[in-house]
Design a protein that fits this description.
- With 229 residues, the protein is of the alpha+beta class.
- It has 3 domains: 82 residues; 28 residues, no CATH class; 101 residues, 3-Layer(aba) Sandwich (Trna Endonuclease, Chain: A, domain 1).
- Strands 1-2-3-4 form a 4-stranded mixed beta sheet, sandwiched between helices.
- Helix 8 links the parallel strand 3 and strand 4.
- Helix 1 packs antiparallel against helix 2, helix 1 packs antiparallel against helix 4 and helix 3 runs antiparallel to helix 4.
- The two termini are 26 Å apart.
Length: 229
């Protein structure tokens, strides 16, 4: 359909060029449908409706049109905010997915023969549990997110939860490291319990599957991404 919107940049273009109320409503409806398709949370729709609202003046078409244009400006500003959030989410996810490159190069690549670090020393640095993963991952993230913090406690009103790594108030990382005594069912139970605990908008579950409990990582990932949308 010609009225469909398939990206935030396309939405911005539509609202920049609206010239009448019908075009405005069509663009708004298309944007809402796009937001539904990509799984945006309910509060985003409420904020969009708030910014898109304008009072019609039954006695002045010009005044109504001016109000519509002001509403379009407010929507454009919000689209910009949503775009920035979406980009940051993609950035954090990509950085986490590339963590294995850091580990490979740090632990497995032979050090320079003229250096003082020896291969035997690196061989001793093996990840054994969740705390080891946290240590390496935090060191990896800190230069990219200088304000990030370790083990931040949050009072949820019905108890206290502790974030493994807090990037900012909207983004937290929960770390899991599989172990010999852990079953796949136990891993799933821990993840599902953590999903409802945090108030942050985005929870990133970093699973270091040392014991290879997850048969199909991509299917596992897709399943839980759909749950938290």
């Amino acid at each position: 359909m010609l009225s469909d919107i398939n990206s935030m940049s396309e939405a911005a273009e539509r609202f920049q060029t609206v010239s009448n109320q019908q075009e405005f409503q069509t663009a708004l409806y298309a944007l809402q449908n796009y937001m539904k398709r990509i799984g945006m949370p309910g509060e985003c729709f409420i904020e969009l409706e708030r910014r898109a609202y304008y009072q019609q003046n039954e006695y002045s078409d010009k005044d109504t049109k001016d109000r519509m244009r002001e509403a379009a400006k407010r929507v454009l500003e919000y689209i910009g905010q949503l775009t920035n959030v979406k980009q940051k989410n993609s950035e954090v996810a990509e950085i986490l997915e590339n963590f294995y490159l850091f580990l490979e190069n740090f632990l497995e690549r032979p050090p320079h023969r003229k250096g003082t670090i020896k291969q035997e020393q690196l061989a001793c640095m093996k990840i054994g549990n969740e705390y080891d993963v946290q240590h390496f991952l935090y060191a990896y993230l800190k230069p990219l997110y200088p304000l990030s913090r370790l083990e931040v406690s949050e009072d949820t009103g019905y108890g206290t939860v502790r974030t493994d790594i807090l990037i900012d108030s909207e983004n937290v990382i929960e770390i899991k490291c599989t172990r010999v005594s852990m079953s796949r069912k136990k891993l799933v139970e821990e993840i599902e319990a953590d999903i409802v605990h945090y108030s942050a908008s985005n929870i990133y579950f970093f699973i270091y599957d040392k014991e290879k409990l997850i048969d199909n990582p991509q299917v596992f990932k897709n399943h839980y991404e759909n749950i938290v949308k």
